[in-house]
Amino acid sequence: MGRYAVLKLGGHVLFKGLELDVEYVKSLLSELRLAARTYDGLVVVVGGGELARRYVAWGRQLELNDSSLDVVGIRVARVNASLLWAAYHGIAPPEVPSSISEAVALVPSWKVVFMGGLQPAQSTTTVAALVAEALGAERLVIATDVDGVYDSDPKLNPQARRLDT
Fold first, then answer.
1. Under 8 Å CB-to-CB from 142, ≥6 apart: which residues?
2. Could you tell me if residue 121 is left (phi over 0), alpha (psi between -120 and 50 degrees) or otherwise beta?
């Protein structure tokens, strides 16, 4: 068994509004290259960010059901993962992993694997935790623009309570 780490990147971390923060992403990719020297494998789970929220809002206006809205958000996160994969590896991914087992299986070949969401009603933070468990990762890092752990999404629920951790 090797040394593995999982990084969950909130889509909001990568973007300033709807604009990709190119300098931040370049810096992040450099840091990932350094981290790849320390670990036998890294999996980076990318969220959808503001763009996903916009698409979900547009879907609501079109009266899509919750499951369909989740799928739209998942697709945006997977596009974000494809972009980072191509920027890191210099080529587009053969396919962004669509399951935990696919992600784990790609680690030996690619060493650094990028992925997005997987299924409706499951956050990319949950995906990151499940990948970390499947890999036996020694580290799970969650990079987000939220300042703690809440009982519900504070961006969607103004009554969300921050939990003591």
1. 8, 10, 125, 128
2. left
pLDDT average, residue stretch 38-67: 96
CATH architecture under which domain 4-143 falls? 3-Layer(aba) Sandwich (3.40)
Specify the pTM.
Answer: 0.88
Give the residue-averaged pLDDT of 117-141: 96
- Tokens matching residue 109: 């070949």
Flag whether pLDDT at 7 surpasses 70.
yes
Supply the pLDDT for residue 1.
67
Q: What residue spans define the domains of the chain?
A: 4-143
- Are the C-beta atoms of 113 and 97 separated by less than 8 Å? yes
